[in-house]
Design brief:
Chain lengths: 114, 114
DNA sequence: GTATTATTTGCGCAAGTAGTTAAATAGTCA
DNA sequence: TGACTATTTAACTACTTGCGCAAATAATAC
């Protein structure tokens, strides 16, 4: 990422944006287990199929999931498993930040920072 | 990320959203070299100080940069260097996707997929 | 105190986005 | 062919967000 041109930054930003939506992360999380069709995902997420379908097209455009048409259903599966690596990294960062917050509060409350 | 509750997904999404903006990535990229104050960053990015200041507050809230007030300037520096790791991962993913695109096109154009 | 500089914040505008319903499209089965 | 089901797309609403301008705040110098 050292000396990247502006266009590259734009693409990276777009990739992050695809991951910046709870519903899309939920979809990716559900697809971790096994492939699913749109209706299943919609029901599991608690949204309309139309909505989930649009999220899936966006994820497909970024190469995160892959679509396979079978019967009159569309099955989606993870296409780039490194997403989970990304999420794990982020989880670690968030956890560290929570730690700092707890320790910071401990200074005032006297609570043990566990 | 396996069995995360919805709230966790929301936090992860928020973290990704902080990185989903070209200007913010540019700021992080500039801070890689050394700390900078708001005015410098504004000039380097080509935006108003007001705009950059807001981006910096957001990045600070997510623990990505840290602020230090010196004189009547505010100096910002990277607080979580693992951001660059994240970006490197994403760069790899985008590169792979470009590769696939080139190779896919090659089937039709006869172009060598370099 | 005033003047000057740097940063932050309030406000408004334009563009983007997640969600809905309804219509269009595609596939299966009789 | 038509009926039925699944998915995608269109149209719309409500909300969010990046930006600039101008005012407010903070720190230094006189």
């Amino acid at each position: 990422m050292e000396g990247l041109p502006d266009e590259a930054l734009t693409q990276i930003a777009a990739y992050f944006q695809a991951l910046s939506e709870p519903t899309r992360l939920q979809i990716l999380n559900l697809l971790r287990e096994k492939e699913r069709n749109v209706g299943e995902l919609a029901q599991l997420c608690g949204y309309t199929s139309a909505n989930i379908s649009r999220h899936l097209t966006l994820l497909t455009q970024h190469g995160l999931v892959a679509r396979e048409s079978r019967g009159n259903s569309a099955y989606y599966r993870i296409a780039d498993a490194s997403v989970y690596q990304l999420c794990d990294l982020v989880c670690g960062n968030i956890a560290r930040q929570h730690d700092r917050a707890v320790k910071g509060r401990a200074m005032f409350t006297g609570t043990a920072a566990e």
